[in-house]
Fold this protein.
Amino acid sequence: QRREVHRHDRYLRMKPLNVADYRRLAKKRLPRGMFEYIDRGTEDEVGLRGIRNALDATKLCQNLLNDVSQPDTSTTVFGKKLPIPVIISPTAVAGLVWHDGEVHLARAAGSMGIPFCVATQSMTSMEDIAERAKGTDLWFQLYVFEDRSLTRDLLVRAKALGIRNLLFTADTPRSPKKEWNMRNGFGIPIKPSVAGGLDLLAHPRWSFSVMLRYILTTGMPTYAHYPPEYRTSITRASVWDNVKLARKLTWDDFAEVRRQWDGNLVLKGVLTPSDAGRALKLGADGIVVSCHGGRNMDCAPTAIDALPRIADAVDGRMTILADSGIRRGSDIAKYIATGADAVLIGRATLYGTATAGEKGARDVLEILREELDHCMAFTGQARLDDITADLIWKQTPAV
Ligand code: FNR
């Protein structure tokens, strides 16, 4: 039995065929605490299961005998043509899954011609990523700090780099209850513990190639966008004590950022038509309909279920992006059919990066592109614009 599993793993390493294969490989390579931080949900993980169930329950119709010899998977988002309707989602500490993980992810995005969204809690600064992943279209994700002047500085820096698109994440008013991480000891700041030490020893490939390289080159990893005077390593609690994210975050803050940011402003984490309407009124250029990949509020509705009513309410007046749970090209098609203009991808490309850096992330994007192409062919749609709500199978009650 063990030999069988081993043989299977060797085969996977030779040729991972899908995102689930990459997830398996990432699980093997990463320390358990870190893998669970990326992979799992919160509380009872009802939200996480719900996302998969809702996507699986969404069926697309097959339309026969259309010319789908060359489906066109491209689209335009904020005036820029993308070969696939995908943006790499902001994910905190992506730099820990692989040495310089953020740079690798950004390069993979660039080589595919899609944008990479730098996170406020990135371990590599936006300037470094811009320098080392030249040519990649960078977006920036904002978590508002308690000290609003720090937030303003980040916007000035993003603008100076030519970043045009800002995601304002509003769905994380508290640190979510990640019980898996409370049990396995992983958290930021990373607290040294016997269990954590053993976890690292059990994953020598990661420990040596990531942690040791950071320690030898730049010192203990840290949050690059936190101001230098507070920028101690992520193993030290002082980062959190000194630089707090805003405890009180309101629509006034969103309006204030709108005044300060002359590029495209996108509110991330929208799940109701009324919040979408409010964002629109305050001058948002777009929204991300998102349940944060099941990582925040365990009893939140899923993004795919929330999307149709929001799309109806928005009625084409701003760009609608969506995310959560995308593991197949058909998941992308389902979001597009349900009303999204494009999607964000979080974990899928992190699994790829954790397995093989830039190459792994690029491979995952290529797999998703190919699966989307297949899905369009099977559904009989030659252009992404043709993927509309008409394509969603509606179960009619038995007469
Ligand atoms: C995230 N996400 C996230 N979102 C955000 O706005 N700011 C952040 O700092 C983070 N950090 C973060 C870390 C990790 C490890 C993950 C997996 C995710 C949420 C992310 O942008 C996105 O909304 C979800 O990940 C989408 O779901 P999938 O694609 O991961 O299923």
In short: The chain has a mean pLDDT of 93. The two ends are 50 Å apart (CA to CA). Residues 347-379 form the longest helix (33 residues). The longest strand covers residues 264-270.
